[in-house]
Amino acid sequence: MLYFISAGEASGDLHASQLIRKLREADIDARFCFLGGDLMAAEAGTQPVIHYSQMAYMGFSEVLRHLPDVMSNLKLATRVMERVRPDAVILVDYPSFNLRLAARAYRLGIPVYYYISPKVWAWKEYRVNDIRQYTRRVLSILPFEVPFYKRHGMTVNYVGNPSVEEIGSRMASMMPEADFRSANMLGSKPFIALVPGSRRSEIRNNLPVMLEATRPLASKYHTVIAGAPGIDHDLYRSLTDTPVIYDSATAIMAYATAALVTSGTATLECALTGTPQVVCYRANGSRISYELMRRLLKVEHVSLPNLIAGTTIVPEMLLHECTPVKVLEKLMTLLPGHPGRDAQQQGYMTMRERLGTDNAADNAARIITNDLNLN
Predict the structure, then answer these.
(1) Tens digits of per-residue pLDDT, 48-78?
(2) Cα separation of 315 and 326, whole Å?
(3) Residue (of 285, 368, 345) closest to 25 by Cα position
(4) What is the number of structural domains in the chain?
(5) pTM (2 decimals)?
(6) Are residues 265 and 276 in the same domain?
(7) 215 and 305 belong to one structural domain
(8) In this structure, what are the phi and psi dihedrals at residue 121, rounded to the nearest 5 degrees?
(9) How far apart are CA 235 and CA 237, in angstroms?
């Protein structure tokens, strides 16, 4: 079978790479054509049609500035899909782009599977109609999505969350903390992890706030930046001389005393390491944007730990609330000896229970191949 997979950002590349591995196990004749990154390329044994670094535009203004690139990518992806005529199309989040691919695949009679559903429960709920029309199955990685889709007359499969296995595997293979510190010349002083996002715009917006928030703690704590894949070192150097470590985000979060994390998959990953965190999302920092977002969002929280637990576990500092003073105030409550630290880690246990322990990629591959009558 030929599988056409579309993932438009770093987290999608990671999760899709695991799915590719499991599809290979379930289908010995599996071949792949995809939009994604280096991890997918390593598993598929071929290069992406488009690398996600050329696709990862976030927010209305950024998408608008790069609209010619977005449309060019969509045309290229559509042409390739029409030419290769895959046996299945598998979409990974990235809804504005992927739902257009889904519509074309549907008209071509190609079955479409959505692995990692778009966040339609948070905003743009009308997209459920397109998902219902164009996809054969939705394979969810968030347990609260099952009742959401049920309210819309859809049955979806919760397959487990891939971050559970991924973080567990990485933590099991991490070098001891002393060796990690020695390898990265961190010394013995405790440190705060800064995880400012995987897109250039996120890093520019969030990292300066994180750096300023942690400055008053410099006598007791280092700061260490988790470098995002595909982001060149020069961007970080233009903002700070703080150490940047690549390909070690899990270890950085696990060995940190606490973390400042940009909203996204990294907040869940940090929670799975057990390290207390403050969620930061600065964007343009506008109060007007905050009020608009508050009215558009259909949910009370934006970070995955809070959404999964169904209550506030981690503080969310959004837009105009994401200032150095306010972030530091929340961070102080999570340092050793403060009650907020134990409370947050207790909340992490509730979140873990709701996620379960299923192997998401394995379950998703089995469902897809069974549906295609391969087993």
Answers:
(1) 999 998 876 555 555 556 567 778 889 999 9
(2) 11
(3) 368
(4) 2
(5) 0.85
(6) yes
(7) yes
(8) -75, -15
(9) 5
